[in-house]
Amino acid sequence: MFALRRVRDHIDRNFASPLTLSDLAQLGGMSRFHLVRAFRAAYGETPIRYLSRRRIERAQDLLRYANLTVTEVCMAVGFTSLGSFSSRFSELVGEPPTAYQKRWAGRAPHIPGCHLFMHGVIPQSRRSPGAGDGLSVDP
Prior knowledge:
Layout: H1 2-14, H2 21-28, H3 32-43, H4 47-65, E1 66-67, H5 70-76, H6 82-93, H7 97-104, E2 111-112, H8 113-118
Parallel strand pairs: 1-2
Helix pairs in contact: 1-2, 1-4, 2-3, 4-7
């Protein structure tokens, strides 16, 4: 159980980083297949589903409170594809990220995106070149 908790805590701390099932299995000291079975038994979902859900939860916070584009949020939480981010977001939240962001517009004060990048809340390396124009996505 300690190994599974270590894996889950690692996901929680490093959700925006590229994480693979092989890396997580190595961290837990077990095979990928055993990790998936044990993690699902302990937490009710696979490690990759858990990672995806954590990224979407963080994206919801950023869409509500940060003055960032959907593309910037997508990259900041660890997705590399705007399409997969939008699909997974819609699946979990029930609406696309743009609709979610518009629904929250004006309800809460927004933190300027430059402050989030400047203070390390969102690492600069996660920001796509030309982010803000809604067109660029990291390859």
